[in-house]
Write a structure and sequence with these properties.
Length: 329
């Protein structure tokens, strides 16, 4: 059994902008049982750049499936939202896959696009990527999803519908109940008739899933391990990255793929800004992310349980992935 974390004197207290990160690290690494770190911290500048590379890997077909569907069905999707529409995107990333939808909207009318992103570099990339589209206005929000969406809703002009994009199966990084709760919170910010385009990665064979989350080149491993370098950099910790390995495993009950960082040996890591030292047993893991996979059919009920109705669904033929158009009831 690993012992409880020890308190160590803090050499440098964390600056205010790191206080939440620091308390999440303390909470996640000092709880009894499974250690964990929230997956949102995977996305600093390096993590966002690595995720961009992941999306090009042959093993990880998710992003390409998402893009294919949006490219193929952009006009159909846009036609289902009549009248003036403002587009908000939760977690825009580089914004590349959003181009097809925005071009379709802008062919019809001048369109405001509000990307909401916690990664500053991704937001800058996104604005650079899409600013050449004719008749578009882009205002980015460097915020958490719901905070950003609340601000976007305040910008809404009367008679304008809000169309929220939550693509790339980011919903899968919530467990199922938390996913429904999140969608219900989005719904509360919207008005009846507003739309939500929700990308969901669908269930597929476990060998395919494991390869997608543990690629041959080791990019996903670097993406995962970067979280420890972030704790080192931001909180002055002394994680030795060579003493941890990336681990991807299927959780059949939760219908998810989990990413962990596994300690190669017994070791103690000190995190001065958090005033703790954490002991790891050989083989012990930090759980860093879950990616839940869906069946195409469950979206009807998920939508209903969160205050939407599932109006339409498009499924990719090469990589099981669905775009679901939900309308706020
Ligand atoms: C952003 N999110 C949907 C990705 C996923 O598939 O869960 C993040 C990712 N993690 C490992 N590879 C990609």
């Amino acid at each position: 059994m690993a012992s409880a974390p020890r308190m160590v004197p803090s050499a440098v207290p964390p600056p205010p902008e790191l206080a939440e990160f620091c308390s999440d690290v303390v909470l996640g690494l000092s709880q009894p049982g499974q250690k964990e770190l929230p997956s949102k911290y995977l996305y600093d500048n390096v993590g966002s750049a690595l995720f961009e590379v992941i999306s090009h890997l042959p093993e990880y077909g998710l992003t390409r499936a998402d893009e294919r569907l949006l490219r193929r069905h952009a006009d159909e999707i846009v036609d289902r939202l009549t009248g003036p529409v403002a587009v908000a995107e939760l977690g825009s990333g580089s914004g590349k896959k959003t181009r097809w939808l925005l071009e379709a909207f802008c062919r019809r009318q001048r369109t405001s696009y509000y990307p909401v992103e916690i990664s500053h570099s991704a937001l800058v990339m996104c604005e650079r990527e899409l600013r050449d589209i004719d008749r578009i206005s882009i205002v980015g929000f460097e915020r958490e999803y719901l905070d950003g969406l609340l601000e976007v809703a305040a910008y809404r002009k009367s008679g304008q519908r809000l169309f929220v994009l939550f693509l790339g199966s980011t919903i899968g990084n919530f467990d199922r109940p938390a996913g429904v709760k999140f969608l219900a919170e989005v719904r509360r910010i919207l008005q009846p008739g507003d739309g939500l385009l929700l990308g969901t990665d669908l269930e597929k064979p476990s060998t395919q899933l494991l390869a997608a989350y543990d690629d041959e080149l080791g990019v996903t491993a670097a993406f995962n391990l970067n979280l420890l370098s972030r704790v080192n950099r931001d909180l002055g910790a002394d994680f030795d990255l060579r003493q941890f390995t990336h681990l991807a495993k299927i959780n059949y009950k939760a219908r998810s793929v989990e990413m962990h960082l596994q300690s190669k040996r017994r070791q103690i890591v000190s995190i001065p800004a958090a005033e703790i030292a954490v002991e790891f047993r050989e083989g012990e893991t930090i759980w860093t992310e879950s990616s839940h996979k869906y069946s195409a059919d469950e979206m009807t009920e998920t939508a209903r349980n969160s205050g939407f109705r599932c109006e339409a669904q498009w499924i990719d033929e090469q990589w099981p992935f669905a775009e679901n158009l939900l309308i706020a009831e």
